[in-house]
Amino acid sequence: MKFPSRIVALSLFALAASATAGEPPQPRDDFPQFIVPGQEAPMARLQELFRLHHDGAFTGTTLWDAWLPHATLWAATGEKPAAEPARSKYRGVFLARPIDAEGYISMQQHRGLAHSEGWPFPTFQQAGGVGWYFSTADEAYGVGLYQLKPLTNTDGWEIEGAEVAGFSPDRGLDLRVNADVVTVTTPPFTCATLSAPFIRLEWAARGLGEDAKPSVSWLLNGEKEWRTERHAAFDRLSDSAGLRFANIPLYKQAGYDGTLTRLKFRFDQAKGATLTLKSLISAIDSRHPITNVNFIRGAAEYFSWTTDLPFLRSNIGKLREALRFALREFGVEKHHLVRVPWVGHEGTSGLAFGTDGKKTLRVGRGVGNNYWDLLPFGGDDALATIYLYDALRAFAAIEREAAAHPEWTIPADDRPFEADALVKLAEQVRARACETFWNDETGRFVGWRDRDGRAYDYGFVFVNTEAVAYGLATDAQAKRIYDWLDGRRVVAGDTSQGADIYHWRFGPRSTTRRNVETYVWAWSAPESIPWGSQVQDGGGVLGFTYFDLMARLRTLGPDDAWRRLREVIAWFGEVQAEGGYRAYYAKPGRGTLQGGGPPGGLGFDNEFMESVLVPQVMLYGFLGVEPRPGGLRLNPRLPSDWPSLTVTRIHAQGHVLDVAAFPDEVRLTARVADGSEFLLWPPDGRWRIADAASAETGPLKLRFRPGRTIICRRVKD
């Protein structure tokens, strides 16, 4: 009697498990498919994950330039297959990306309360700074956080040479100038210079003289007289410029140290002009050292997928200037790594602890440098160095192609980059990074070294998986990293060890060692948040699973990467069966979600747009696709139980192809063909197009027509 009951119970359990996992939706023919014979259900589930995140995978913010285009520039969707929506969006973004006079590429996040071209925070309020707004139009962030209200008078201000013409809700304070020189002096205040490396003015002007040189002067604590030699100039605005930000770097001025107490703005050649002042704040340097290289990586990938020559002709100058700035500003050719010289980016914590354990906030210190914006990456920055390494190689490929194709008529440069020199520099960066950032005791890369040389190692999983995935880590380092992540060795002192590193199932934790002492000062009570309930302290972000999968493929091979991917797919099936991320994680004990406002430990949706990266392991990993101008390189790496892999609707150049890989054969079927020659770089060895007379080792030159399949076979000796 017991045995039948047991059998029934087991059968019911199996049915319940099946129901919990649910059935993936049927693949749609208007979206790329991943086809592996015998693996239809997991492939359908992975396609579902891709569809879920694809349409929202766009932003004009530079932070995501190397990730979202990577996932969307190839995916031909719709009844008439094409990746044009994503291509058109990113083409426009990259062409319009602002670059300042020094060469810094703007972050282009929403309006913030710090440097206008940087991250929105740390805010001047968090820094004990000062700010005045004559208009709060478009200031949703500041109004929402601090209930900013516009000033309606100039009480406490001193204005000479102009009269108040009015207050505009949309523009701010309008001044009508009646003298050759106008000065505008703020009310008295106190603000540490450390909290005000920049003074940010949003203003407009009509009628300033062509040679006008606006400037700002300042008083420090205890001073009463303005020093004529103490001023910093900023750019004049033309009549047509409208409202613009001036980020004035006072930190570069000699003797700028202490406590600010007043500011005076001077506008010359101004008689008859109209000046508009919208806002004035002291600003933390919230720039990130990764914007320039991310822009290069994203734009280079766009060109590699499209061979859009008008785009490259228009943007090559900006790309070169962006790289020059990164190399110069961060001392790359001298140090062979990214050394961040900015105020607040020294790599030291904004939290200090006395011998009695009492915490002190080091206001102005520990400013973020990348996606992980609470952590004080800086000083010698490992993550920025990894991204620089990737950008150098990507841009070297662009310069090499431009030199090899004079018929492209890519504009020349008076300070040209040589492709071979960039490759050499990339290898120097790689060697220095592997030495500087490697912690031999823990067998992994640290996040950064501060200006005093101190290394910070909280088990930064994302630093290590990206170092491996981008090919920066040596083979020996990669092996030690995965011995750690897979629990074959344990790092003493880590909070998370062994199997617990993958506690979240969809991927590894972001860090493995509890951090309650190393943050930007504004994140002042990290100890109040439990381990794993903050994405930057033991939590996890779905999108970074992609780098784990790609790193596994490179280090441990396709079978291991497929094993891990199966676990991710199983997790996603359970999540979908319970109604999606929000419903699934609403149940206690499963973790806390961040996204759309509240902080939490896990990131899947809303601002976590990089979740779209995970399915890309099928294209870039197992199929081994590398876009190149004019075509594709393929280097498939199939798990042992996959007879083949097909990825459909790949929009490469002007063609839309289904690409199938077999052990010694590649098949390409054209859904759309534009009539141009298509270059295919096959895996190593000699390959022959079926029915062709001879084999080739270089790129195969293919001609497609819609519906045609071209078969390429490896020639065996």
From TrEMBL:
Residues 1-21 form the signal peptide. GO terms for biological process: carbohydrate metabolic process. Keywords: Signal. Residues 626-671 form the Glycoside hydrolase family 65 C-terminal domain. This is Glycoside hydrolase family 65 C-terminal domain-containing protein. It comes from Paludisphaera borealis. The lineage of its organism: Bacteria, Pseudomonadati, Planctomycetota, Planctomycetia, Isosphaerales.
